[in-house]
Amino acid sequence: MNRRTFLKRTAGAALAGSTRAAAADLDLTRCVIVASGSARRREKKAVTVLVEEVEKRSGVTWTVQSGGSPATAIYAGTEATLAALGPRTAAAASALKGLPAESYVIRAGRDANGAWIVVAGADERGLLFGIGKLLQTIAFTRQAASVNPQLLNLATSPKFPLRGHQLGYRPKTNAYDAWNVAEWDQYIRDLALFGTNAIELVPPRTDDGADSPHFPLPPEKMMVEMSRICDDYGLDVWIWYPAMDPDYADAATVQSALKEWAHIFEILPRIDAVLVPGGDPGHTEPRAMLAFLEKQKANLRRFHPKGQMWVSPQGFRESWMQDFFHILESSHTATWLDGVVFGPQSRLGMAEFRQRVPPRYPVRFYPDITHSVECQYPVPEWDVAYAMTEGRECINPRPEGEANIFRKYSADTIGFITYSEGCNDDVNKFVWTALGWDPERRPAAALRDYAHYFFGKPYADTFAQGLLDLENNWRGPLAANEGVPVTLARFQDMERAAPPAILENWRFQMALYRAYYDASVRGRLIHETACLHSARELLERVNEIGWKAQPLDIEDPPSEGPVNGLDPKVLLDEARRILEQPVLHPASGRLRARVRALGEALFQSIKMQLAVDRYRGEAVVRGANLETLDTTITDVAWLRRQIAGIQEIAAPNDQVAAIQKLLARTDPGPGGFYDELGNPANRPHLLPGPGSVEDPEFRASALTGFSYPDLLGSKIPMAWKRWAESLFDAPLRMRYRDLDPEAHYRVRVVYSGDSPRVRLKLVANERAEIHPLITRPWPPKPMEFDVPAEATRDGQLDLTWTREQGLGGNGRGTQVSEVWLFRK
What is the tens place of the pLDDT at every residue in 520-558? Predict the structure, then answer.
């Protein structure tokens, strides 16, 4: 049985099982909602949401009444209003007693008058969350709705009090900047129905552009609308408010900022808290920053009397971190500062951070769920072909990875508001929300609820499995990952069977886009790698008998003709022809065409900007990875460039020597060693540390970094476009054993990376300096240094790289691409 047949049969079996189970389901097609006539506005809003979402999914319109015992009824109320709805709610009301805020109970039953369901919330939010769970459980078809009553016996409370997401209406977010008020309302509603209780907005002035060609409203007006939407659903409103001015020690600057922020505070209908990041962006020393925030707290309270002020020490250098913790210990600071946030670019890990922050301050988690490289939680050991094409802000469902991050770091917090820069991380948002409610929940179960709610019961299992498969596509070497075509086949089966409403659903389109994109890159990688190997094998014929370059004879210099009767021009021409095949006859043509078509579909459905010129995306690095779909992912272009250079050499003998040198580029010679530190399959001497499962932030582990976008193209080999690195003040280490104690060694190293201005140094055995702090050459090129003889006298050698200590910023800089250890 082939993979496609297996997928079809398993999907069919699942659907058949669903049909059999449906025989016992409760028919809700003619259901009546019973709700309190005296309910407050958000309780009424929750009931309205239920009516509207049922109609969207089935075309069925449920009526609402304030009492009675209809034959098929759903009773919806809070602890305060439930008793007035009649005796059918008694069991739910009893189960609700003693449950904390935001809890809900769902019960189903049957009596002489008919069947009923009760959705009871401890408060208005609890009712909304309970209605969301009901919607994730009901099976909808055209003009019909039903549910298995055995699934409706729940009493549940959230584990973490804060479960939120940042939604930034600004140009860099690759789709959000084009959303209108109705689209924002629906997105915030969807998040709320899964248990989200906070939304973080972004002010008009940040480190982004002031305008976008896609804005349907000016940023200030949309911010007001989003605050109002959140308030309608009863969600907390946070503002991520960066301090963008250069000097908050200047009185005039402070007064101007107070006026600017006061305007925003005044026009927004709801603000519960403000987070001011200490960096990324912003760069103000802690004493001036906190003095400024104290004034802004008073400013906020003029318009929102319960508004809170929070701060994160992102990007602080070591001396600033010490000052920050010292200020937090002040009794005066405790009178106005409400909490501290752990986010990206923190010099300390979560455990030490929580230990250093005085216990009186709660800690909020601010995890980056949106980026894949150059970020807080990068994709571990990502294949370079993905990194160079899909890039930093690609569509990135990582359910298992995000669950691991959540469980590693959330225990020391009151919860989270995630860092997001677009809808590319949509799946991750819902996974985090599910875990914030129940940390023990399996990601696969959360994905089934996601798929059921957005696409319907027939897709609950297959689409959820597809999302898990997309994460598995990114594990291990891409060329060897045979799961990638299986993932594509699964999505293609869903695609062929899907009705128009599903095909036009942007969440379905995003998953399809990723599945096709992954398979396209893999096909191209396999083709290019085969061409590369063929060209190298051809060039290696220069090492056969009869091709060896002859030593120069001063009295009888070689002619300009063939060497030993053979002309290297033949090899060079044929190798170049082979390397031109990926350009002339690119692989995965149909897949790439489908990727582009889906890119157009996503622009039409949600204005997702996957290209800069065509869709007016802000930049390639802002998720516009249609621009990098065809970017180089192997050494094909670089080798073609090298061959072209050799073809310009006049003497055949010199051409042969140049070919031999090219083929031996990574050869460390007899008794030597070579490591390509950006390649997990070829760095035997690197000390990797505990790894990504135990260390998702890579604070104690070697991280693989990448050059994205590819600015140097064919000028440098792929080995220089990826590297191993350590973060902040942590060392990057290599270890050699079984060296010759009598030999002398020399190290050659290529320093690459995305932080070329950060200086780094190299030490042998933690005491013998091989070179002091230096600025790496740029563009990258090899550098050589002698290893002190005493460093290898015992037959062992440790090499340790560190960057300048105590710096702030993103922590990157210790970035090493290649290392040779030569025996002299």
Answer: 999 999 999 999 999 999 999 998 866 554 443 434 444
d(CA 748, CA 686): 15
What single letter denotes the amino acid at residue 279?
A: G
Whether 676 and 817 have beta carbons less than 8 Å apart is answered as: yes
- Of 735, 757, 761, 739, the closest CA to residue 749 belongs to 761
Q: Characterize the bridge pairing of strands 745-751 and 783-786.
A: antiparallel
304-328: buried (b, 16+ CB within 10 Å) or exposed (e) per residue?
Answer: beebbbbbbbbbbbeebbebbbebb
Question: pLDDT per residue over 718-760, tens digit each?
Answer: 999 999 999 999 999 999 999 999 999 999 999 999 999 999 9
**Residue from 320, 326, 335 nearest 278 by CA:** 320
Three-state DSSP state, 667: coil
Number of Cβ within a 10 Å radius of residue 730: 19
The pair phi, psi for residue 666, each rounded to 5°, is: -100, 5
Res 218 pLDDT > 80: yes
pTM: 0.94
Burial 227-253 (b: 16+ CB within 10 A, else e): bebbbbbbbbbbbbbbbebeebeeeeb
Q: What value, to the nearest 5°, has the Cα angle with vertex 275 and ends 272 and 281?
A: 150
d(CA 282, CA 778): 28
User: Could you tell me if 89 and 75 are in contact, meaning their C-beta atoms sit under 8 angstroms apart?
Assistant: yes
- H or E segment and range at residue 718: none
Strands 198-201 and 162-166: parallel
* Residue bearing tokens 């990797």: 688
* Secondary structure of residue 174 in the 3-state scheme: coil
Average pLDDT of the chain is 94
Rg of the chain (C-alpha set): 31
pLDDT at 345 over 60: yes
Q: Which two tokens stand for residue 557?
A: 């210099």
Query: Using alpha carbons only, what angle is made at residue 632 by residues 387 and 394, rounded to the nearest 5 degrees?
Result: 30
CA atoms within 13 A on the CB side of 746: 12
Residue 606: is its pLDDT beyond 90? yes
For residue 774, the model assigns a pLDDT of 97
Burial class from Cβ neighbours inside 10 Å (0-12, 13-18, 19+) for residue 440 reads exposed
The string of pLDDT tens digits covering residues 97-118 is 999 999 999 999 999 999 999 9
Per-residue pLDDT band for 24 (boundaries 50, 70, 90) equals: confident
What is the C-alpha separation between 107 and 117, in angstroms, rounded? 6
Instruction: Work out the average pLDDT over 261-277.
Output: 98
Answer whether residue 23 shows pLDDT above 50: no
Distance CA 119, CA 106 (A): 5
- Please give the Cα distance from 414 to 306 (Å, whole number): 18
Longest Cα–Cα distance of the chain, Å, equals 116
Report the percentage of the chain scoring pLDDT > 70: 95
d(CA 746, CA 598): 52
Peptide bond into 779 cis (omega under 30): yes
Q: Identify whether the C-beta of residue 46 lies closer than 8 Å to the C-beta of residue 127.
A: yes
72-78 and 114-121 as β-strands: parallel, antiparallel, unpaired? parallel
Cis upstream peptide for 709 (omega within 30°)? yes
C-beta of residue 351 within 8 angstroms of C-beta of residue 412: yes
Alpha helices in 318-414 (DSSP H): 318-328, 350-356, 384-389, 399-409
Backbone angles phi, psi at 822, to 5 degrees: -95, 140
| Preceding omega of 281 cis (within 30 degrees of 0) | yes
Contact 159, 440 (CB under 8 A): no
Q: Residue 121: name the closest of 86, 158, 147 by CA.
A: 158
